[in-house]
Specification:
This protein is α/β, with parallel strands linked by helices and about 300 residues long. The chain has two domains: about 200 residues, Spore Coat Polysaccharide Biosynthesis Protein SpsA, Chain A (Alpha-Beta Complex), CATH 3.90.550; about 70 residues, no CATH class. Helix content is about 40%, strand content about 20%. The chain has eleven helices and eleven strands. Strands 1, 2, 3, 4, 5, 6, 7, 8, 9, 10 and 11 form an eleven-stranded mixed β-sheet that branches. Helix 1 links the parallel strand 2 and strand 3. Helix 6 crosses helix 7 and helix 9 packs antiparallel against helix 10. It is globular, with a radius of gyration of 19 Å. Its EC number is 2.4.-.-. One of its GO terms (molecular function) is glycosyltransferase activity. Keywords: Glycosyltransferase, Transferase.
Length: about 300
């Protein structure tokens, strides 16, 4: 099916949290579609967190009884119902609906480790330029480290004195926490990318506006993805990588040069000055998104025809 660009939520349900504890500064947005069983596990784990986060589920037009299940079993959870499946844009609807200063993202198969939201809030409080942090991700019931953890930790962008962790230009959507104002300032997820490598463009957009994006391994997310193969996923990821390169065409060249300089700096102390100068110019290299020609946008949407995919 195609995915219209201008549909908003049709209904919002809000329930006051019971109990004496006041919700913390980090709210949680969950994007879901037709996964009521795994969503119930996720919500149960999130509501058990000591941080007592506000939880908002954005339903991407589910055709099962997702909303009925939430209303019956988790009345303290807010529900934002969308009339069509908007993919990753559901997260942006959720960010707009929350008023917490920081927003953590979960999918309907992921949740946060106890204490991690508190650690994330501390990073944001202590580093005003921090726009988004990428967590350490543990996968499955045996908590296997996601290979992405090491890739992010070895980012050639290194550290910055006014940011925690290692600077990165990528993250896992269900293992990220954002400063709400920074996320909205960058525009959130692009409507055309839907799902599949949609995070990279948002990382570029945040950096382009001067916000820091870092990997903070003391913040931990648990991810329990469905082991079944996802038909068509590789093609969608390749499409989104191409669209991201088009939308921010100057940037891959700047990043490639930065990687070369970082490699040189490890061997030659004199190369570090050139690396610092290049890093200082990165925000200028990250120019505004280029518009897509209409025929390119129409072609890009063909992969979504007839696709009712969930996150």
């Amino acid at each position: 099916m195609s995915h219209p660009a201008h549909h908003g939520p049709t209904a919002t349900r809000e329930r006051a949290r019971t109990g004496p504890a006041k919700p913390g500064p980090v709210g949680i947005v969950i994007a879901t579609r037709n996964r009521r069983a795994s969503l119930a596990v996720t919500v149960r784990n999130l509501l058990a967190l000591p941080e007592r986060p506000e939880v908002l589920v954005v339903d991407n037009a589910s055709t099962d009884d997702t909303r009925a299940m939430l209303a019956r079993d988790f009345p303290q959870v807010r529900i934002l119902a969308l009339p069509v499946n908007r993919g990753a844009l559901a997260r942006t609807h959720g960010v707009r609906a929350l008023d917490t200063p920081y927003v953590a993202f979960s999918d309907d198969d992921s949740w946060w480790a106890p204490g991690s939201l508190r650690a994330a809030a501390r990073h944001f409080d202590e580093h005003p330029r921090l726009g988004l942090l990428s967590a350490r991700t543990l996968v499955g019931p045996t908590d296997v480290a996601d290979p992405l953890n090491d890739l992010l930790a070895r980012s050639p962008l290194g550290t910055a004195t006014d940011l925690p962790g290692t600077q990165v230009l990528g993250f896992l959507g269900c293992a990220a926490v954002a400063r709400r104002t920074a996320y909205l300032d960058a525009g959130g997820y692009h409507p055309l990318l839907f799902f599949g490598a949609e995070e990279t463009l948002l990382a570029y957009d945040l950096a382009a506006r001067g916000w820091g994006v870092t990997h903070c391994p003391d913040v931990i997310a648990h991810h329990h993805p469905d082991p079944r193969p996802r038909t068509g996923r590789p093609a969608v990821v390749r499409r989104n990588e191409l669209l991201t390169a088009w939308l921010r065409r100057p940037f891959p060249h700047a990043l490639a040069r930065t990687r070369r300089l970082a490699a040189d700096a490890r061997r030659d102390p004199h190369a570090r000055h050139a690396l610092r100068e290049t890093l200082a110019r990165l925000p200028a290299a990250l120019r505004a998104r280029r518009p897509l020609p209409p025929h390119v946008e129409r072609a890009a949407r063909l992969l979504d025809e007839g696709d009712g995919a969930a996150p």
